[in-house]
Amino acid sequence: MEFINAFVVSLQSVWNDSGFASFTGGHGIMILVGLILLYLAIVKEFEPLLLGPIAFGCILANIPCTGFFGEEMNVMKAINFGIKFEIFPPLIFLGIGAMTDFSPLLARPITLMLGAAAQIGVFVALAGAMILGFSVHEAAAIGIIGGADGPTSIYLSTKLAPHLLGAIAVAAYSYMSLVPLIQPPVMMMLTSQKEREITMENLRPVTRFERIVFPIVATIFISLLLPSIAALLGCLMLGNLFRESGVMDRLSDTAQNALCNMVTIFLATGTGMTMSAESFLVKETLLIIVLGLVAFIGGTAGGLLLGKVMSKATGGKINPLIGSAGVSAVPMAARVSQMVGMKAKPGNYLLMHAMGPNVAGVIGTAVAAGTMLAMLK
Amino acid sequence: MHQPVTTNPFIIMLINMTVVFIVLIALMYLIKLIHYIDPTKPKAKQEPTPAPVVQEVAVPVEVPKKNDDEVVAAIMAALSSIGEYGTVKAIRPINREGWKQSGRVQNMNF
């Protein structure tokens, strides 16, 4: 009898300590969300390298009683520190810098304007969010989704609205993977067939001197002006210097492969871990997802419209389609410009021309984040 | 965190957009300055070398008819991806037995 009693008490204790005892409907819904995201990542291949770990982190975050965010230090808490203290986004930028070729931008610096114009989406969403009742800090963090730049979105929301991080990161990465679906209808709507058929002139060759001096000068200038984004921009340009110097190949290789992959695992898993039922299952999440879409469409339209103006001003030398690449999403947005251009006129290769506004968009989004931080923080 | 000078969303939008444009315009001029002071840039007077594609015009295409368009498209795509543009007037195989040569070299290593 005593044996049975002890057995039952032990079983009860195991049950009470288990996650099942504390499992709520909210946890169930969020695990389902995680499973849907995993499906999108693995089966539909929507940004699988990012959505995969985000989805898995989401599932882990919604298992009760894990003690991930308790008093004691553990691996998940350490990963969360990397996000909370803005360590991972600049490290990802180091890798992006090492992978980015700024030559198309250096050959045609006017395309920086397209990168700036595409930031209008950020501010349209910011205004929309404020009208919908978000505070100015929350609205700024939501707006940056329109920059189509994951690390910058995470960086800014950690600083301005950490409680919205999960929803913002998921919206940013989801829309980035949907760029080939979101952008073409806007591009078709805002440009004429004649404009889409414009063939652009060759880019001039860029010397090694220019490619080396640019990251150094850009870091000094922008960091002095907007010190709050010095970590992001500094890492981007340092990675690029690794690449362009020609004498730091090993560092460049590590930054764009091993380091970038490792940090991606931590950043994405940690982002998923912020998607707990308590913070994600709120009506704000839905609004953020809608505002993110508005931001993306606004950014695409902004870039295209300035592209049209530039096309007119240069007597038809610039194809306005490259304007839509001003929303960062490197290199996906540039590929979309190429795809739509080719559809309008087979043999119209816009990829290299669109890379100019595309990398300008990365700088533009970081600058937009910097101006908002300077204004609000 | 502090409150901004204004909470009017449109004024915030205008201020931020202006700053983004000013910073990127300044960066544009910095890029132009770098190009201007670049001591390694080729002399401006130099006659630009015409694209090799256009130069290598000779005997008309002898590619089998059914693959013609695909071959031209593939060659144009490859050239455009490295930044070379021009009009393809003719495509002819180079009289070089590269594959055979490569095979021989590989065999020599055994």
Keywords:
heterodimer; A: 377 residues; mainly alpha; 21 helices; 0% strand; B: 110 residues
How would you describe the overall organization of this protein?
The complex is a heterodimer of chains A (about 375) and B (about 110). Chain A has about 375 residues and is mainly alpha-helical. Chain A has one domain. Chain A contains 21 helices and no strands. Chain A has helices at about 1-15, 20, 25-40, 50-60, 75-85, 90-100, 105, 110-115, 120-130, 135-145, 150-160, 165-175, 180-190, 195, 210-225, 230-245, 250-275, 275-280, 285-315, 330-345, 350-375. In chain A, helix 9 runs antiparallel to helix 19. The model of chain A has no long low-confidence stretch (mean pLDDT about 90). Chain B has about 110 residues and is an all-alpha fold. Chain B has one domain. Helix content of chain B is about 55%, strand content about 0%. Chain B contains four helices and no strands. Chain B is elongated, with a radius of gyration of 27 Å.
Topology:
The complex is a heterodimer of chains A (377) and B (110).
Chain A: H1 2-17, H2 19-22, H3 25-42, H4 48-61, H5 75-84, H6 88-99, H7 103-107, H8 112-117, H9 120-131, H10 136-143, H11 150-160, H12 165-177, H13 179-190, H14 193-196, H15 208-225, H16 230-245, H17 249-273, H18 277-280, H19 283-313, H20 332-344, H21 351-376
Chain B: H1 9-37, H2 52-55, H3 68-81, H4 98-108
Average predicted confidence as pLDDT of chain B: 73
Q: Kindly report the greatest chain-chain contact and the residue count on each side.
A: A-B, 54 and 40 residues
Give the strand tally of chain B. 0
- Percent strand of chain B equals under 5%
**What helical percentage do the residues of chain A reach?**
over 70%
Number of H/I helices of chain B: 4
Radius of gyration of chain A: 23 Å
Kindly estimate the percentage of residues of chain A that lie in beta strands according to DSSP: under 5%
